[in-house]
Design goal:
Largest sheet of chain A: 9 strands, mixed
Structural class of chain A: alpha/beta
Oligomer: homodimer
Strand order of the largest sheet of chain A: 2-1-11-10-12-13-14-15-16
Chain lengths: ~550, ~550
């Protein structure tokens, strides 16, 4: 083949912060710190300190290709590590502090992390696991010297000491863009967590695609507050996108309650945010209770789990904040789809537009997707047929860290597709809607019932705080839906009232067979309902009439 | 190094049309044809016909890596060739019909084009050059069978016949993303034209960057009418960006007069356009004369040469059309900078914002730039220092086709930079402003005078239609500015009145030494003033007092 004759410039993460330094030197990064205060820096200073990080980790003996872990909130020091570690050719491994200590230790050992940088909040975790993590040679507290703990069971280094001793002269190495840049473990509900190893190429391409007008639409006119944690699929890529486009960044640290967030939004003139539905529940509870309005917020990305229609409507109609309903996975860097309109949708009514936004949306450019039946045959894009959702593209996992087996399914044309584990419909305009997780779908007779549809009806009732729909065994139908419900404080509702609420909202045969009221539904480390636990708890449940 | 474990999905041009077919099948491509009518198709049909093109050129014996030329207006058949030829692994070579026939033949021979597809408008050119183009095995007229010329000196094939005979079953080959995809020759003012060979990678990355909110901000809600020709640096990339984002495309064919364009803008509800200042002059003359307003146009990209401030103001203030002042080159795919605002500019007055837009703007992500003095030393980004503008990035030329010598300049760090031939300032916010072409700058004493600044003042006078400022020899100052002016029809203005118009607008020593009124200024094939000709014409000009 004849090659083009354009420059061979590798797509590197260091290029993102270099671009921000050259083109947006004075744009601010504002962080609520573990120390309690609000800290301000700029992309120029952040770039300088990222170069110090690169020298510091070199001084600690960390080599290119080795993994460096973090256990930290969203903040400027964490961002310095994003660029300093990846930029120098090592892989940044962001740990989820919401996992149990044993699981964190297991992950550290699997990744063979050589150093671990942590916010002081997490010192108890560190002290609990340090002796079990043989690969870790350095434990670094991300704090000023004067705030360092007086003593600890673990031999701690001080982040600010390390940086103060490091030169800020460092030329970012140029290397193959397929080099590993960073790493996240999936919170698998079965088996051990699995590591996803991102590359510089996948990260930069994902950043470009994420910023596009049909995706998150981010520009130098934005001020972004990522509520989604930097330990959760790299805060959906926002720490990379922001310097790429020169947007101001605001980090909430560990203060994720409604009041703290709202105050930060207003004080820093945030225009755009991103997070899971549970975070927005807290924020909206605060604004509703205090009759507050956002003065600069224009839009927010909601993902991680489906955005309840009532939340979408409240944000847009009462608060004038556009909701970008999005879907993705750790294995997808994470962005797969965003619900943004096409030109043809200008003609729709407000209600029709809302109905479209309830879907998880269209594939962003670079992501290809399809739905297949149990035999792997393509299903039509008619908005009705649902099947296993498969994806492919340059920021989608090829295989897991240290796993010999490929997770991909190969189609008739020899093309590999990643099975998402989600069940979905896709309509003629390419709008995808998750109807269930493969393992959560309820198989009643030959028909599938979407647990999510059933849950959405339940939470639309004013007395319901949370609802999970799981399959209960049934002698005739194999499985039938059982609804597990948490009532709102002081709210009253009976089984019969709740079941009557389904009338006209779903087909008769999809209405749950029974309702169980509980005090709480167990949640996983990323805020998702742990249906595996519920299924275990209700595995012998006897449905009425069964 | 440790590699990431993400999918190795090559960035291919076929992926753009596949994406449009899957996600935007019903979006229209509307073309005013050589036949005279308005033709409508969709991305799904366009993709089908692009596959037929791939089969058809295979049937003609065209192999991957070989060049296939076009001599055509903006239209759907040209777009089919964009995807059919590049997608199958050959390189699409777009020829500029505004060049003289000898030059076109020279370029075809240099590129060794194997086939040439042309609009019937250009049959006289084809008949003039065919016998001189030994590499071309097939001459294909892009027209229906019934409109084919009854006879021709050249053995012609009919495009629609070829497609009708070709199957639409074709699986786009997957290959190295660095494979050559397309080719343009620069309209060099000295020496022979030089070929720039784009790759699939450079084209797809350029498309992603061009669509970003800080660049051209293109989405599935847009309807794009590229006035800039598809033979002029791939219409600035818009034929690739539009299917990538699912925008409707409207092609004007050869009808580029103000009335034809305006009528098409209105009939097709165009939201965004792109072209050189001379095209907009024609369009605005039509709207001004007939007191018309655009009902859907929201913004237009203006590049190719500097947008006159008066045009920028007229578009924005009277017509409510946002101007995206842009700069690029054939060697840059072409996009380098776009003048879009940052968050901090919200605080500026309307006049201050206009002043920023007069600059060519900020580097789009992926392009790095700097200005250097005659010794290659970096100059400060203070908006005042001006020097040679150098660029680098993944869609910037590395070397010219068949040229052994690299055009790049290597800096102290070993990094290669492409010298643009432009002289520019860059301010602290990264806004670049072209002050001149390196060869057009006027060297008066030790000081440089920007010919563009002097021309802008001249054309701001209501009696001036066009103005070129060139250097005239001067015994004391080496060079002094001479202004060559075309008056507007029936307008009166004297040398003294025009020179008085400079008062307070430029420094006294920058005011031209003399004014010559002419009937016309020679223009090149891309509409730029041919200062080389003027310099030749006035090489013995005696300035007053010299």
């Amino acid at each position: 083949m004849l090659h083009g004759q354009m420059m061979q410039t590798p797509l590197l993460i260091s290029g993102l912060i270099e671009h921000a330094d050259r083109h947006h030197p004075d744009v601010e990064i504002v962080s609520r710190r573990v120390e309690g205060d609000v800290h301000r820096t700029t992309y120029r200073d952040l770039h300088r300190r990222a170069r110090q990080v690169a020298n510091a980790i070199g001084g600690l003996g960390i080599k290119p290709g080795e993994r460096v872990a973090t256990l930290a909130w969203n903040g400027y020091r964490h961002l310095e590590l994003y660029f300093g570690v990846s930029g120098s050719g090592s892989a940044l491994h962001t740990l989820n502090p919401r996992l149990i200590a044993e699981q964190i230790a297991w992950i550290i050992n699997d990744a063979e992390d050589q150093a671990l940088f942590f916010d002081l909040t997490f010192l108890p975790i560190i002290e609990g696991i340090a002796s079990h993590c043989k690969s870790v040679r350095h434990w670094v507290a991300m704090i000023d010297k004067e705030k360092m703990p007086a003593s600890s069971k673990v031999n701690l280094l001080c982040y600010e000491d390390l940086l103060a001793a490091a030169s800020d002269h460092f030329a970012w190495p140029q290397f193959d863009e397929n080099t590993a840049s960073s790493m996240c473990y999936t919170s698998g509900t079965t088996g051990h967590p699995k590591g996803v190893l991102y590359s510089h190429r996948s990260t930069v391409l994902h950043s470009m695609a994420a910023a596009l007008p049909d995706a998150l639409n981010l520009s130098a006119r934005d001020c972004i507050l990522p509520v989604v944690p930097m330990f959760h699929v790299n805060a959906w890529g926002l720490p990379y996108v922001a310097p790429m486009v020169g947007a101001k960044l605001v980090f909430p640290g560990g203060a994720l309650d409604g009041k703290s967030l709202f105050d930060l939004f207003e004080a820093e003139k945030v225009t755009c945010s991103a997070g899971v539905p549970t975070v927005w529940q807290g924020l909206l509870a605060h604004t509703e209770a205090n009759n507050l309005r956002f003065s600069t917020m224009r839009r927010t990305v909601i993902g991680g789990s489906a955005c309840p229609p009532s939340m979408l409507r409240l944000f847009q109609e009462k608060y004038g904040v556009q909701v970008l309903h999005a879907w993705g996975m750790t294995e997808m860097s994470p962005l797969g789809t965003v619900s943004t309109f096409k030109g043809k949708h200008d003609a729709l009514s407000a209600e029709q537009r809302l109905a479209l936004q309830y879907k998880q949306g269209r594939a962003i450019f670079g992501v290809d997707m399809k739905i297949v039946d149990a035999d792997g045959q393509d299903l039509p894009w008619d908005g009705k047929a649902f099947g296993d959702l498969l994806v492919r593209g340059p920021w989608i996992v090829d295989r897991y860290f240290k796993q010999a087996d490929s997770p991909l399914r190969t189609d008739a044309g020899g093309q590999g597709w990643f099975p998402t584990g989600d069940v979905a419909t896709i309509d003629a305009d390419g709008f995808m809607q998750i109807t269930d997780r493969s393992k959560d779908v309820i198989k009643s007779g030959g028909e599938w019932i979407s647990s999510i549809d059933i849950e959405n009806v339940a939470v639309s009732h004013p007395a319901v705080a949370m609802a999970a729909c799981i399959a209960a065994r049934h002698p005739k139908w194999d499985e039938r839906p059982l609804l597990v419900v948490v009532r709102k404080p002081n709210a009253q509702i009976t089984r019969e009232q709740l079941l009557a609420h389904y009338e006209g909202k779903v087909a008769r045969w999809q209405v749950p067979d029974d309702v169980v009221f509980v005090d709480a539904i167990p949640l996983g480390a990323t805020g998702k309902m742990l249906k595996t636990r519920l299924r275990e708890q209700f595995k012998d449940y006897r449905l009425p009439g069964a």
